[in-house]
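Checked the freezer inventory, then went back to the computational side. Two predictions to log before the end of the day. The first one is the construct we discussed on Monday; recording sequence and tokens without edits.
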Amino acid sequence: MQTGTAPSTQLVRRVNASAMLKAMRGAGVVTGTELMAATGLSRATVISICDELVRLGWLQELENQRGAGDYVKGRPARRFVFDDSAASVIGIDIGATKITAIVADMAGTSLSQVTMPFRAYNVPADERADVLDKIAADALDKAGVSADSVLAVSVGVAAPVSRDGEVLTAQEFWKSFDVRRIVSERHGWHVLLENDANLAALAERWQGSAQGVDNLVVMLAGDRLGSGILESGRLLHGQLGGFGELGYLDNVDGVGDTYGIAHYATLWGREALDAGTETKLTALCGGDPEALTAEMVFRAAADGDHSALDVLNRVAHRMARAIGSISTLVNPELVVIAGAVAASANALIPTMEKQVPDFTFTPPRLATSALGDGIVSLGAIRHALDYVEEHALDLYPASLPKHVAAG
């Protein structure tokens, strides 16, 4: 009987510690009574966990001051403050053409962001690992924090990832590049792995236009389409990590594949040029269709160019079909278009809002993300912080010298 009780007690204690840290992050100085109100925990539990978190270096206890508003038998309240600088986390986005890393403190405040152009798919695994080392070192140096302060690193990849952080794909790239093992072996950091669109969803709900939204789809919609889905505030993975994968769009009439907004804006813009249509796109690309970019198409459309507007109407219609299909499946309250095209894609929203109801009986609200290119790395920060909160009693900030009294 006792062998089953101890783990259960420890699990409850970890859950309570996680709730305490969430309540304290960004709250400033708090008293025991305030923590009881925020978490629903008893005074004895609150004080016990605070004592342990102080010992581990997560909290600082301030000197008692009468008049603080919380007394026990005439004695002033014990007051605590969360130590934002106790440790740090890193969020990394491994994209097709670049890698972005963000270093943040325990409050989730970004201390640095570094982006490095890099086509990771065309180089050996060791060289990819060397580039990851360099960008992480640059980000830590820019943030002014040491490598031994890092408690967790979360890495976003463009592949299905299971709940256990395993890449579930037969792509040779990921078979030859075990990110978690390589980074962990080189630095001793705890490394998490997650799908890039899933991380984008975490970021959008944390700091973006989806704050407070529990039923959410975030679509990375640049060159390719990918989606991260939250239901009742929970990130969904499915049995093998494939929840939100959009390969089924190959079979959706009027969509046909998983290429994104930037791809088709460019492709259809070039078709307009090849047709000899009089358009501002000609001047923007210097008469060379191969030099045309999606950004140029959006720019010409903003200036009222008819060919560019026709292209964007086609893109919006295609996206309405894609959003209609996924909305029929998961019925989100909000769908957010994110990634490199998000700022420009705002021009597509009015047309999509009109057309989405033609493809689903449960049309969601539509929005574009304002989090920019760093959305996946930002979501990786949230992912790493969630891990640290959940394991707070097992992790020891570098601020505690040699983690003494850890056990």
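The second is the one RB wanted added to the comparison set:
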Amino acid sequence: MKKKWVSLLLSAMMVFTLSACSLGGKASTPAPEQPTTEATTGDTGELKPEEGASLVVWESKEARPFVEAINKEFTAKYGIPVKFEEVSGGDTANKLTTDGPAGIGADVLMFPHDNLGRVVSAGLILPNDYHEEQTRKNNSELSVNATSYDGMLYGYPRSIETYLMFYNKKLLPNGAPKTMEEVIELSKTMNDPAKKQYTFMWEMGNFYFDFFWVASTGGYIFGQNDTDTADIGLNNEGAVSGLKFQQDFVKQVLPLKTSDVTFDIKKGLFTSGQLAMSVDGPWVIGDLKKSGIDFGAAPIPSIQGKPSKSFSGVKAWYVNAFTKFPNAAKLYAEFASSKEAQLKEFEMTGTVPANIEAAKDSKVTSDPITSAILEQFKNSYLMPAIPEMNSVWSPMASAFSDALNKGKDPKQALDGAVKQITDAIKQ
């Protein structure tokens, strides 16, 4: 159960302690055979980078400052040049499907753990073998489990995350509301769509963010801890109730089409003081701080008296199975996920470390934003990492779009989505 995952995290890390698009089948070109460990280590047992190695790294634009800083440190230590290429987390696995076998993919890439089953099944990434022991020792059990598949570790965990609510302290001087009913009341005096002033926003039409509306009221992805794909809980009584509540909420609070609320539009409204509350993830913290806005963070308001249940995940580095420089790539993945690197990223962007010692650092434990993230994490839902999850995103996005944009009956919208998911899984 998800509560068990959270319990493992919190106990391992004391007070501390994304997504996804469709992906093709197995890569048509087999990954090149990798040299044995004996052939890649020197007398000291350290991994030796290939002569003349250079690396390309894929990460999202929000992480650019952190990645570019790490790239400079890595190059200074190993003499290996590293190039940053901007690819959003939701597109990385998809892009690797074509670019990896073609020999033009990044050597090291980051993606949320829910993509893991698909890329492993397609033979697109290498196991974390050389650094496995220290990775398991240094990072939380949850992050190690989330970046493993069929018992084998593939990832180099970097951060845990869930989205939560950021709020404008100037517009909400008494603090953030705790219930969606309070948000509705606030919107009656705070909303002014003609002046583009809004009370509450999330990325409508993006199932990653829409999920909390149906999960909070009893919906779920798959049964048996997200392993039973024959049991889909996205159109059960609780999910239907949640979507109906959301449908009514949109009419009263956010009278816009789903396409009107993109990441950039929402962030721009929030940083300019035109939006009181914004549901987003830790990746936006760095930009919010740079904007100068006085903001706070809190759990997403409850829905029908129940805590809002957000998606949660683990971000990690992975090594492309088709890289020409596997040793250098593994060295980079370990270097960029070290305790020091995770603390640097926390300081730059506010992401919550997966590294146990980094998570205990006073800079992390005393931060009120991090405390809010952990509070929301307690009620989160770890994204399934099995390949069948790939069949969920598009049908569910369409269901929410039909319900919110066209007023389609929630039960009919969700029934249609589940049928599409079921049919896709059977193929």
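For RB: The domain at 2-161+313-382 is CATH 3.40.190.10 (D-Maltodextrin-Binding Protein; domain 2). The two ends are 28 Å apart (CA to CA). Let me know if you want it refolded.
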